[in-house]
Amino acid sequence: MLKHKWVLLISMLINMGIGLVMPITTIYIHTVLGKPLSVAGTTLLFFSGASMVGNVIGGRLFDRWSHKGPVIVGQTIASLSLLIIALSPTWPLYPIVLVFYGLGIGTAFASFNGLVAILQADEPLMFNYSFLAANVGMAVGSLSAGVLFAISIHLTFLVPGILFGLAVLIDIFKLEDGNAQTVKGPTNNVVSNPIHGAFRSIILIAFAFFVIWIGYSQWNTNLSTYMTSHGASVAEYSALFTLNAVVLVLIQPFGNRILPRIFPRKKYQVIFGTVVFACSFLMIIHQPHYINFVMGMLLLTFGEMVVMPTIPAWLNEFATPGNRGTIQSISSLAGGFGRAVGPLLGSLIIEATSYPAMFMWLCAADIVGAGLLVLAIDRQPNGK
């Protein structure tokens, strides 16, 4: 039986809420509120920046204050923000409150990952199970977003606000708390971690995660224009992400059992997954047919299954009780920064060269990231 079911339910609920909000953000700002796409992009940039600030805050609070306290604070901020937008989804209130929403989920995610990192000692596949629960929630949320948006914009934000509120109640009544260790002096610094080479490895892992998310963000943004210019409909483009969610939910339970046997060390699992990410772009460089996009998405999904839960688990090997939340916030920061700059960077490469050239650059960047990971260490803090 799975342990820590309440933690997995929280992961599912908050990702369901995010899946309801994010797919309609650009559409709502541009189509309903009548703002230029550049304004929508700027709003999302501020949202990502606030989320990254929340990552830092959540990680530090987890280490110095409480294990579940910052999770509750972050989810409460996110819930209240969505309820305010549900009452008055108007301009300029909407983008302002969306920034607070980003701050809330950033705080919640960093501290929640710290909590999962602690539970991993009791359940070795805790990150994998949490990732699976998150994808179930994201799939349900994304599929429901269009339905709720067609009914009412108020309902579109009310439902995820309620979901975050339910997560807060579970936090309060079902999660066990642990008092964070207040570590004074240099012992709370990642640089002084007793594992030789830990700081270098953490930086290399964070850089690889940053590069991966730059590429992943293209599928959520610039690929829509590329696909539709080659005859695909918006519905066919959206279907790729339904495929992504369904395949993740179906294959990850098998991946959880098989991949550790093939790659006993997390280092080589992440390197393999990063190369798979690179190959997803090779599928669509010279053959922009819909079947190639499907095959590219399947490779992307497989790489996601291999990499996304493994990186925080790998980083947790370098953590001590006094910096576990801070180290987990590093992966959130790296991913958030990649998501923030990825769409802009991709569009600049496209304008300067072409879509195929961008795919080649992204493929090469993933290969470089995978190569650099060879220099990282992979062992438990006790030296095993």
From TrEMBL:
TM ranges: 7-31, 37-57, 69-87, 93-119, 131-151, 157-176, 197-217, 237-256, 268-285, 291-315, 327-350, 356-377
Subcellular location, principal: membrane
Keywords: Cell membrane, Membrane, Transmembrane, Transmembrane helix, Transport
Cross-referenced Gene3D superfamilies: MFS general substrate transporter like domains
UniProt keyword Cell division, yes or no: no
Ranges for domain Major facilitator superfamily (MFS) profile: 1-179, 201-384
Coiled coil: none
PROSITE patterns recorded: MFS
GO molecular function: transmembrane transporter activity
Topological type in the membrane: Multi-pass membrane protein
Protein name: MFS family major facilitator transporter
Single GO cellular component term: plasma membrane
Species whose genome carries this gene: Furfurilactobacillus rossiae DSM 15814
InterPro entries attached to this UniProt entry: MFS, MFS_dom, MFS_trans_sf, MFS_Transporters, Tet-R_TetA/multi-R_MdtG-like
Annotated compartments: Cell membrane
This protein's record includes keyword Methyltransferase: no
Top-level taxon: Bacteria
Alphabetical list of Pfam families matching this protein: MFS_1 (PF07690)
